[in-house]
Amino acid sequence: MYPPVACADVAACVESAPNRNSPPAILLRESYRENGRVLKRTLCNLSDWPLAHIEGRRGVLKGGTVIPAERDAFTVLRSLPHGHVAAALGIARKIGLDRMLGADGNRWRDLVLALVVGRIIDPASKLAAARALSPATATSSLGEMLGLGAVNEDELYAALDWLLERQPAIETALARRHLNSGTLVLYDVSSSYMAGRCCPLAKRGYSRDGRKGTLQITYGLLCAPDGCPIAIEVFEGDTADPMTLAVQIDKLKLRFQLQHVVLVGDRGMITQARITDEIKAAGLDWITALRAPAIRGLLQSGAMQLSLFDQRDMASITAPDFPGERLVVCRNPDLAAERSRKREELLAATERDLARIQAAVARKRGPLRGAAKIALAVGSVIHRHKMAKHFHLDIADASFSFSRKATEIAAEGSDRRSLCRAHQLARRSLR
Predict the structure, then answer these.
(1) Which of the listed residues 44, 95, 361, 430 has the most CB atoms within 10 Å of its CB?
(2) Do 261 and 185 form a contact (C-beta atoms < 8 A)?
(3) Residue-wise pLDDT tens digits, 281-339
(4) Exposure string over 155-187, b if 16+ CB within 10 A, otherwise e
(5) Domain-by-domain residue ranges, the chain?
(6) SS3 state at 354
(7) Contact in structure between 216 and 245 (CB atoms under 8 Å)
(8) Contact 241, 189 (CB under 8 A)
(9) d(CA 234, CA 205)
């Protein structure tokens, strides 16, 4: 029998004791004081107990309370961030975005609205968005404000499928609100790289993200004059920018029923081939920019003088090579200075790299020899900086020299001005 001790001097605890090569033994032990010394004795061995029971016993001995293991034993009480949700959701409702997406009481509509607002306040993946909306793991009051309850990622993907079916109706409603006959329409194309393998539109193409060798998807965005998005179309990743224009023209003329439209795009989008084959055939007006060779041709023919490039006002001219069109010229000094700075940086970087090759050819120990090897090294530099047209290159088996084409560089600086071409019928719209 254990010696009698006062209750105040006894304390029980659950301890883990080493057990040689076996798992540690879990023991219920009691410590007591005898003759001024603190001793311990084992009351029972708990090694066979389930871990949950052991931890429960440990918690009770430390002064805790046993909670039943039922599902509703715990209630989460907390205050969720709300201000940013109220602002973004309030604006969405004020502009009628919720009504445009669908009718009240539609869970798909509410899920899509939650994704739109969530993209503004806290962009995240679909899995993270589902967790942020569900009550138990919510990171804001958005799910509660929309009455969504528990949300999983499969529902969000299904909501996007529902939205895809609604896209034509939503775009038509946006066009009816923001576009009318005689309006300008802004259009441009971008792309994003893909990390997955299951998207049928993902193709190898030009990467605007700088991720060479990755799969791409291309998308074109159609906007109102104030920049409000009206319609978007997704294309295969290897689709050239001009080839996306026909779909947008069909939207403007057939679905949106616009009689007079002025299409605005950059020189890479509205090419001469697209003007001839698609834009003129659809009866659209257009505004775009001339490429450098066309501007140089106008300068050489005398149809345009550099004195027309005013820094404050625009000049409108006509030329026989562009019948029925107006050419609008204006010089932007800030843009010209920025282009000049970038060109000078590229020229200097090219010269530094070419100088290294020149030094490798001229060195006495292990020189770079052979016209083919020298040309490969020079070609790598020229390809990297895209400055081949600005340098004279002289490559031989045992020598290499280079120099800038000063006259051509100066001429390019004068030719690269901002010059737009506009179809003559656009006059009343521009006014």
Answers:
(1) 361
(2) yes
(3) 887 888 888 887 777 777 777 766 666 566 566 677 777 778 878 887 776 677 777 88
(4) bbeebeebbeebeeebbbbbbeebbeeebbbbb
(5) 7-67, 83-167, 290-431
(6) helix
(7) no
(8) yes
(9) 14
